[in-house]
Amino acid sequence: MPIRIDLDDLLHARRMTLTELAERVDITLANLSILKTGKAKAIRFSTLEALCRELGCLPGDLIGYDPGGPDLSEQEEGAE
Question: Taking the model in full, what pTM does it have?
Fold first, then answer.
């Protein structure tokens, strides 16, 4: 997917674990892992806001765009 979530670097810089972030944001570890691995198809603004608040970052620090990445619609077609 051309959209990527850059959680690893932000977590490392803040010396925070994925589990700790999940607890602070009140999201399940499983859902946060799906987001982190790029398998999520959507993110709520309230979740994005909570992540940015806890990580002390802007949305653009967390979300990136890679035009060379596979398109989500191509992934869905291949899954059928």
Answer: 0.80
